[in-house]
Specification:
Layout lengths: L2 H5 L15 E5 L1 H19 L7 E7 L3 E16 L2 E7 L3 E21 L3 E24 L5 E11 L3 E6 L4 H31 L2 H4 L5 E3 L4 E4 L7 E2 L4 E5 L2 E4 L23 E6 H13 L4 E5 L13 H5 L3 H6 L5 E7 L4 E5 L2 E15 L5 E20 L2 E18 L10 H22 L1 E2 L6 E11 L2 E10 L2
Antiparallel strand pairs: 1-12, 1-14, 2-3, 3-5, 4-5, 5-6, 6-7, 6-8, 9-10, 10-13, 11-12, 14-23, 15-16, 16-18, 17-18, 18-19, 19-20, 20-21, 22-23
Helix pairs in contact: 2-3
Amino acid sequence: MSWICWFVLAAVIPVTLGTNPGVKVKLTEKGLEYGRQLGIALIQQKLKTIKVPDFSGTEKVSPIGKVQYSLSNMQIVDVGLPKSAVDLVPGTGVRLSIGSASISLHGNWRVKYLKIIKDSGSFDLNVNGLTISATIAIKSDETGRPAVSTVNCAATVGSAKIKFHGGASWLYNLFTSFIDKALRNALQKQICPLVTDAISDLNPQLKTLNVLAQVDQYAEIEYSMVSSPTVSQSSIDLGLKGEFYNIGKHQEPPFSPTAFTLPPQTNNMLSLGMSAFTANSAAFVYNKAGVLSLYITDDMIPQSSPIRLNTKTFGAFIPQIAKLFPGLMMKLLVKTVTTPVVTFEPNNATVQATGTVTAYAIQPNATLSPLFVLNLDTSVSAQVFVSEMRLAGAVTLNKMDLTLGTSYVGEFQVRSLDNILQMVLKVVVIPKLNVQLAKGYPLPKIGKMKLVNTELQVLKDYMLIGTDVQFTS
């Protein structure tokens, strides 16, 4: 994966003006330095593919006269790129500058003079003082994915030194008078086309950007840009939509992202801000899909628990149940009635959920007889973490409030069921929820991108992920 793939996180998809992003990304100077290292390795490999064509000619060499010469089988032996720099070009993209570079090649020579005398051998050529400057534009293609192109490129070749193997000393005069210039021109003409090709070769890799990433069978998340990237002298800042949708049906939620600003960052290559809007859009999607509900049966309760889901246990707190439905097993349906609300405060992520708990007696013929409906208000704390290229989490119960919605067995004290319902939430509902949360959802990425040295902070209205990045081939 190349350095430009790293930079083009700054130009993802067509622009939708006037919308705050759910996700923000900042590429720092440390990230640019990593990109430079990747880029130099790429350019170096590309320049090793330079092919210098065979060429021949006739020159007058004193005192010999006309000399016919030919150079053939010229191959690049080494490319040295000791000095390079990458700078951001506000409003455009990236400028790559390479200086004090060198190219070494090996070839064969042949001469004929005085009509009958022939000579041949090999030579080694070292070209020093090579400079390259290229400006790369970052845009989006017709599919809404990033694309790169070369705006301009300039290359100059400095001095050259040749060492002939075989032949007489006058060969150096022949080289100095003509071959030196011819070889340097041949090399110089190759450099910018190869740089341009190297940049164009990145576009297939850029199409791997997960603009629309599937999370599971119910949801996908969109990482399209909501505004043009902001390119400054020290960073690239961009805003991504960062919104969950039901698969195949993109319905906007009844709320919008609020503005937030990423702090300056120097310790990491990349800063990634995930807003509460993104998390709340996920809650909206899963609630709309009807999957925030769970039937709980007795076999889901640990065998060691003295509390069982049957009319005998509940009858101890609500005698009418034991009288009306003696000796029956029970089933509980826990489900949300409104979309849960996620809030981010410094060092604290919480989820507020309003739902119902409906209790049923299971008749011998498997029909369900409703016993009561409780209104359930819960608050859970969320721990969020990065697992490979996914953002995952786990929740713990903070508090639970119960009120009676409907009773089919007469009046009873709801508070008498607090311990039972807390146990059900802690040992059944929350563990099952955490299994799903641990799977996480995909973060934006290009190709085989890996996050390292990752740190996560919960701040006001968003989470901040500071991370370094590695690309693997």
